[in-house]
Amino acid sequence: MRKANKLLPLTSVCDSIGCDIYELDRMVWRVVDHLDIKLPDFDIVGLFDRVFKEWVSGRNNNNNIGKDLSAKMVKQGIFVLQCMIKWYMTTGRRPVPAVVAVLVFVCELNDVEISMDDLAGQLNVAVATCKLRYIELLKCLVDVARANLPWGDDVNVKNIMINA
Predict the structure, then answer these.
(1) How far apart are CA 11 and CA 30, in angstroms?
(2) Structure letter (DSSP) for residue 157
(3) Strand, coil or helix: what is 150?
(4) 162 pLDDT band (50/70/90 cuts)?
(5) pLDDT digits (tens, 9 = 90+) for 27-72
(6) Please, what is the end-to-end C-alpha distance for the chain in angstroms?
(7) What phi and psi values does residue 32 have, to the nearest 5 degrees?
(8) Which positions ≥6 away from 101 have C-beta within 8 Å?
(9) Helix-strand-coil percent breakdown of the chain, rounded to 5?
Protein backbone atom coordinates (compact mmCIF):
# COMPACT_ATOMS: atom_id res chain seq x y z
CA MET A 1 0.00 0.00 0.00
CA ARG A 2 1.32 3.39 -0.87
CA LYS A 3 0.64 6.77 0.69
CA ALA A 4 -2.08 7.55 -1.84
CA ASN A 5 -3.96 4.33 -0.96
CA LYS A 6 -3.18 2.93 -4.39
CA LEU A 7 -2.70 -0.74 -5.02
CA LEU A 8 0.85 -2.06 -4.92
CA PRO A 9 0.81 -5.74 -5.84
CA LEU A 10 3.25 -8.12 -4.20
CA THR A 11 4.39 -9.32 -7.61
CA SER A 12 5.62 -5.81 -8.45
CA VAL A 13 7.45 -5.61 -5.13
CA CYS A 14 8.99 -9.04 -5.72
CA ASP A 15 10.22 -8.01 -9.16
CA SER A 16 11.79 -4.86 -7.68
CA ILE A 17 13.59 -6.48 -4.76
CA GLY A 18 14.24 -9.86 -6.36
CA CYS A 19 12.65 -12.29 -3.92
CA ASP A 20 10.10 -15.09 -4.05
CA ILE A 21 6.45 -14.05 -3.80
CA TYR A 22 5.62 -16.73 -1.24
CA GLU A 23 8.42 -15.60 1.08
CA LEU A 24 7.35 -11.98 0.82
CA ASP A 25 3.70 -12.92 1.39
CA ARG A 26 4.56 -14.83 4.56
CA MET A 27 6.67 -11.94 5.82
CA VAL A 28 3.91 -9.39 5.11
CA TRP A 29 1.30 -11.45 6.94
CA ARG A 30 3.62 -11.95 9.92
CA VAL A 31 4.19 -8.18 10.16
CA VAL A 32 0.48 -7.44 9.75
CA ASP A 33 -0.38 -10.00 12.42
CA HIS A 34 2.31 -8.78 14.83
CA LEU A 35 1.36 -5.12 14.49
CA ASP A 36 -2.41 -5.80 14.43
CA ILE A 37 -2.80 -3.75 11.28
CA LYS A 38 -6.23 -3.68 9.64
CA LEU A 39 -5.70 -3.89 5.88
CA PRO A 40 -8.38 -2.51 3.55
CA ASP A 41 -10.47 -4.85 1.44
CA PHE A 42 -9.11 -5.81 -1.95
CA ASP A 43 -10.27 -3.58 -4.81
CA ILE A 44 -10.66 -5.77 -7.90
CA VAL A 45 -11.98 -2.85 -9.96
CA GLY A 46 -8.88 -0.82 -9.10
CA LEU A 47 -6.74 -3.78 -10.11
CA PHE A 48 -8.55 -4.01 -13.46
CA ASP A 49 -8.06 -0.29 -14.07
CA ARG A 50 -4.34 -0.51 -13.25
CA VAL A 51 -3.79 -3.64 -15.38
CA PHE A 52 -5.68 -2.12 -18.31
CA LYS A 53 -3.68 1.12 -18.19
CA GLU A 54 -0.38 -0.78 -17.95
CA TRP A 55 -1.45 -3.00 -20.84
CA VAL A 56 -2.41 -0.05 -23.04
CA SER A 57 0.79 1.86 -22.26
CA GLY A 58 2.97 -1.20 -22.89
CA ARG A 59 1.36 -2.22 -26.20
CA ASN A 60 3.05 -2.36 -29.54
CA ASN A 61 2.14 0.57 -31.73
CA ASN A 62 0.63 -1.76 -34.35
CA ASN A 63 -2.85 -1.72 -32.80
CA ASN A 64 -3.16 1.66 -31.13
CA ILE A 65 -6.26 2.13 -29.07
CA GLY A 66 -7.78 5.58 -29.09
CA LYS A 67 -8.84 7.36 -25.94
CA ASP A 68 -12.52 6.89 -26.73
CA LEU A 69 -12.18 3.14 -27.25
CA SER A 70 -9.95 2.87 -24.19
CA ALA A 71 -12.50 4.64 -21.99
CA LYS A 72 -15.29 2.48 -23.43
CA MET A 73 -13.32 -0.71 -22.74
CA VAL A 74 -12.60 0.35 -19.14
CA LYS A 75 -16.30 1.00 -18.54
CA GLN A 76 -17.23 -2.35 -20.08
CA GLY A 77 -14.62 -4.16 -18.01
CA ILE A 78 -15.71 -2.52 -14.77
CA PHE A 79 -19.33 -3.38 -15.53
CA VAL A 80 -18.47 -7.04 -16.21
CA LEU A 81 -16.38 -7.22 -13.03
CA GLN A 82 -19.20 -5.74 -10.98
CA CYS A 83 -21.55 -8.31 -12.49
CA MET A 84 -19.08 -11.06 -11.59
CA ILE A 85 -19.02 -9.79 -8.01
CA LYS A 86 -22.83 -9.70 -7.93
CA TRP A 87 -23.01 -13.26 -9.30
CA TYR A 88 -20.45 -14.43 -6.68
CA MET A 89 -17.97 -15.48 -9.35
CA THR A 90 -15.06 -13.81 -7.55
CA THR A 91 -15.90 -14.94 -4.01
CA GLY A 92 -13.16 -17.05 -2.48
CA ARG A 93 -11.03 -16.98 -5.59
CA ARG A 94 -7.86 -15.31 -6.68
CA PRO A 95 -8.79 -11.99 -8.28
CA VAL A 96 -6.04 -11.61 -10.87
CA PRO A 97 -7.19 -14.49 -13.15
CA ALA A 98 -10.68 -12.98 -13.14
CA VAL A 99 -9.21 -9.62 -14.17
CA VAL A 100 -7.27 -11.31 -16.98
CA ALA A 101 -10.44 -13.08 -18.16
CA VAL A 102 -12.44 -9.84 -18.17
CA LEU A 103 -9.70 -7.97 -20.02
CA VAL A 104 -9.52 -10.68 -22.69
CA PHE A 105 -13.33 -10.70 -22.98
CA VAL A 106 -13.53 -6.93 -23.38
CA CYS A 107 -10.72 -6.92 -25.95
CA GLU A 108 -12.40 -9.65 -28.00
CA LEU A 109 -15.69 -7.78 -27.76
CA ASN A 110 -14.04 -4.67 -29.24
CA ASP A 111 -11.95 -6.54 -31.86
CA VAL A 112 -8.64 -5.72 -30.16
CA GLU A 113 -5.95 -8.38 -30.31
CA ILE A 114 -4.68 -9.70 -26.99
CA SER A 115 -2.92 -12.84 -25.86
CA MET A 116 -4.14 -14.41 -22.64
CA ASP A 117 -0.83 -16.24 -22.32
CA ASP A 118 1.22 -13.04 -22.52
CA LEU A 119 -1.05 -11.13 -20.16
CA ALA A 120 -1.06 -13.95 -17.61
CA GLY A 121 2.72 -14.14 -17.86
CA GLN A 122 3.05 -10.40 -17.19
CA LEU A 123 0.85 -10.69 -14.12
CA ASN A 124 2.48 -13.91 -12.84
CA VAL A 125 -0.70 -16.00 -12.79
CA ALA A 126 -1.41 -19.45 -14.17
CA VAL A 127 -2.75 -19.44 -17.72
CA ALA A 128 -4.96 -22.46 -16.98
CA THR A 129 -6.71 -20.59 -14.15
CA CYS A 130 -7.28 -17.57 -16.40
CA LYS A 131 -8.80 -19.81 -19.07
CA LEU A 132 -11.08 -21.42 -16.47
CA ARG A 133 -12.29 -17.99 -15.29
CA TYR A 134 -12.85 -16.98 -18.92
CA ILE A 135 -14.94 -20.10 -19.61
CA GLU A 136 -16.89 -19.54 -16.38
CA LEU A 137 -17.55 -15.94 -17.42
CA LEU A 138 -18.84 -16.98 -20.83
CA LYS A 139 -21.10 -19.67 -19.33
CA CYS A 140 -22.49 -17.25 -16.77
CA LEU A 141 -23.17 -14.63 -19.46
CA VAL A 142 -24.98 -17.28 -21.51
CA ASP A 143 -27.12 -18.21 -18.49
CA VAL A 144 -28.01 -14.57 -17.85
CA ALA A 145 -28.79 -13.99 -21.54
CA ARG A 146 -31.04 -17.06 -21.65
CA ALA A 147 -32.94 -15.87 -18.60
CA ASN A 148 -33.34 -12.21 -19.60
CA LEU A 149 -33.31 -11.86 -23.39
CA PRO A 150 -36.30 -12.64 -25.61
CA TRP A 151 -33.98 -14.48 -28.00
CA GLY A 152 -32.09 -16.06 -25.08
CA ASP A 153 -32.71 -19.62 -26.25
CA ASP A 154 -30.52 -18.92 -29.27
CA VAL A 155 -27.55 -17.70 -27.20
CA ASN A 156 -24.67 -20.08 -26.57
CA VAL A 157 -20.99 -19.83 -25.68
CA LYS A 158 -19.95 -19.68 -29.34
CA ASN A 159 -22.15 -16.71 -30.25
CA ILE A 160 -22.09 -14.76 -26.97
CA MET A 161 -19.88 -12.07 -28.53
CA ILE A 162 -22.60 -11.26 -31.05
CA ASN A 163 -25.18 -10.92 -28.27
CA ALA A 164 -22.96 -9.11 -25.76
Answers:
(1) 18
(2) S
(3) coil
(4) confident
(5) 988 999 999 988 777 788 988 998 898 888 875 444 568 889 999 9
(6) 36
(7) -60, -45
(8) 130, 131, 133, 134, 136, 137
(9) 70, 0, 30
Distances, alpha carbon 55 to alpha carbons 73, 75, 103, 158, in Å: 12, 16, 10, 26
What backbone phi and psi angles, to 5 degrees, belong to 161?
A: -65, -30
The Cα 65–Cα 94 span in angstroms is 28
CA–CA separation, 111 vs 64, rounded Å?
A: 12
Identify residue 26 by its one-letter amino acid code: R
User: Which are the contacts of 66, defined by CB distance < 8 A and separation ≥ 6?
Assistant: none
Burial of 68 (0-12, 13-18, 19+ CB in 10 A): exposed
